From TrEMBL:
SMART domains, A to Z: PKS_KR (SM00822)
Basic and acidic residues biased stretches: 1-14, 23-41
Organism for this UniProt entry: Planococcus koreensis
Protein's name in the database: NAD(P)-dependent dehydrogenase (Short-subunit alcohol dehydrogenase family)
Annotated family: Belongs to the short-chain dehydrogenases/reductases (SDR) family.
Keywords in alphabetical order: Oxidoreductase
Amino acid sequence: MAEDKFEKIDKEIEPQEQSHQPGSEREMSPEPIYDDKDYKGSGKLKGKTALITGGDSGIGRAVAVAFAKEGANVAIAYLDEHDDAEDTVKAIESYGAKAFKSATDIGDSENCQKLVDDVIAEFGGLNILVNNAGKQFPQDDFLAITPDQLMETFETNIFSMFYLSQAAVPHMQKGDSIINTSSVTAYRGSSSLIDYSSTKGAITAFTRSLSQNLADKGIRVNSVAPGPIWTPLIPATFDAEKVGKHGGETAMERRGQPSEVAPAYVYFASKDSTYVTGQAIHVNGGDFITS
């Protein structure tokens, strides 16, 4: 069987590190595949407006581009990776969609409310909320997890989902959707990412519970649980040795690319999933098989 483009780029990735979170896509070598040219949009999200947190790079950027291909206008929120964010805006606009970017800390409830207000002011509505931003701080020693680390991880990874969803729901209508990024670690755990994995477990429960709460409004709530994906968070989190081995433990023996995850978000955002809520799609290369 011929080697595909994803296998090829995986073999080109050398051990590397970044010194800051959540990391920069421009500093990665090679950069992730966020725009799969084989993916052709068909207007599934025409006339829709989406807000994606962590939309400057990684999975968020790939989702932004896929949504733009499907006809949606896209707002991205990010922390301080201004160059990456500008690259994403250009990629969105290259497909004829309108783009909006906002640098903000979504761990703060007032920032989340302002973010949603700004998106409404820019586009006149909001149909799709993708809660995707996240942080992780490995600690092999459980006792080394400090209250400050615990709070920062929870504020970014799960508190923000409450804040943003509460701000967005009053503007959403029947047929709109909320999509949360969970993780394979919510299902198999991680000995060195206990606080991160705990937030991802909370996201899974949040998704299931909120889906029931909003079902009578016709707003669907689902999650995507990625496995090892080549995003800036990886070299910004782990040492070079672990980065070099990243994804090798999966059944497919490689890491995934952001563009391989994005179609799951398109499915949940579109009419293709009108009878699906409270569910998770696992995109993990066989890293963990759920029952």
